[in-house]
Amino acid sequence: MTKWAARSGVRPQRHPNPRMLAEVAAGLSAPQKELPPKYFYDHRGSELFEEITRLPEYYPTRTERTLLLSWMPSLIPQLGTRTLVELGAGSAEKSRIILSAMRAAGASGVYVPIDVSASFLNETATRLRREYPGLVVQPLVADIADSFDPPRGLPHPALYAFLGGTIGNFYPPAAIRLLSRVRAAMEPSDRFLMGVDLRKDVRRVEAAYNDSQGVTAAFNRNMLLVLNHELGANFDPAAFQHRAFYEPVTHRIEMHLVSAADQEVRIPGIGLVFFAAGESIRTEISCKHDRASVAELFAAAGLRIEIWRPDPECLFALVVGAVI
Ligand code: SAH
Ligand code: AVI
User: The pTM is what?
Assistant: First the structure.
């Protein structure tokens, strides 16, 4: 056990999640070590993400919020939305703009927030029930990368929403699988509303993932604490440095944790994992899009772009998709 693990009292969990164990084992034995970004989001990770959304450098959230505020009051009555199904809902901060537009349009409404972060999702649901009496809130804890089974019998038209640019955190084949599942759940009167972070000046994008207060670095390192807690691993987060850079060929930010020295980490059920100094774990990709790349993803999933609405600076766009 490292000195850090002994101090922190890390203990192997009695029943580690077998799925998590298999994903971590596969990811850390690949030539480029990699971990799925869904493991950022325990309760603390979700709070850190909330902090990121308020950082001056992190433009996506405030840009998307402005777009939603100006557009939802007219779009929602036009679509006649009665149900909002939201993927990766998190705190549902911006979802309230859609829910308020539904309420103003007279729909009592159903809201199905879907998220992998169970405790955070349940807190969100409790708050929303208080804020929107009459709204039926049916939270669903699920991994949207592999299952998507919204409750049956929801009132239509439904709006499926995937905000924040989270689609960018999926490799294109996984993004297409996810969009195809949304498409399969949609009736012809339903619509899909997605937020996408757009391709832009590299310095602007890189600054958003390298904030001056170090919140993104803490968010990145939090994944190691999640592995310690869930699997009883003995990662020392301080022994890994945050690195985020834009990869122009694939149009994506990559976030890595770089080992500061040669070190071994013990993960019960996996064994000792060796990290050479300078070796990294890729913890996230965040793909940046344009209209053509979104149209391509949509077409592969059986969707078409009905409305494309970027902000005036073309930093971020909201897109409405319909079934082909
Ligand atoms: N929609 C919010 C939150 C974005 S953060 C916003 O726009 O601000 C990304 C959210 O997606 C987190 O709440 C995280 O827990 C969730 N998430 C990430 N990967 C997921 C997965 N594979 N399945 C379900 N939820 C996931
Ligand atoms: C949730 N997702 C869209 C964020 C992003 O920008 O890719 C996660 C994030 N990673 C670092 N900062 C924010």
Answer: 0.95
User: 31-47 burial, b if ≥16 CB within 10 A, otherwise e?
Assistant: eebbbbbbbbbbebbbe
- The CA-CA-CA angle for residues 184, 185, 189, to 5°, reads 105
Q: Residue 168: nearest ligand to its CA? A: 2
Report the distance separating Cα 178 and Cα 174, nearest Å: 6
DSSP 198: B
Report CA(64)–ligand 2 centroid distance (Å): 13
Cα 314 from Cα 319, distance rounded (Å): 13
Q: Whose CA is nearest to atom 16 of ligand 1?
A: 88
Pairing label, strands 303-310, 316-323: antiparallel
Q: Is 168 touching ligand 2 by the criterion CB < 6 Å? A: yes
A 10 A CB-CB count for 278 gives 11
pLDDT digits (tens, 9 = 90+) for 159-212: 999 999 999 999 999 999 999 999 999 999 999 999 999 999 999 999 999 999
Is residue 267 a contact partner of residue 227, using CB atoms and an 8 Å limit?
Answer: yes
The residue nearest atom 5 of ligand 1, judged by CA position, is 90
Q: How far apart are CA 214 and CA 82, in angstroms?
A: 41
In angstroms, rounded to a whole number, what is the distance separating the alpha carbons of residues 18 and 13? Answer: 11
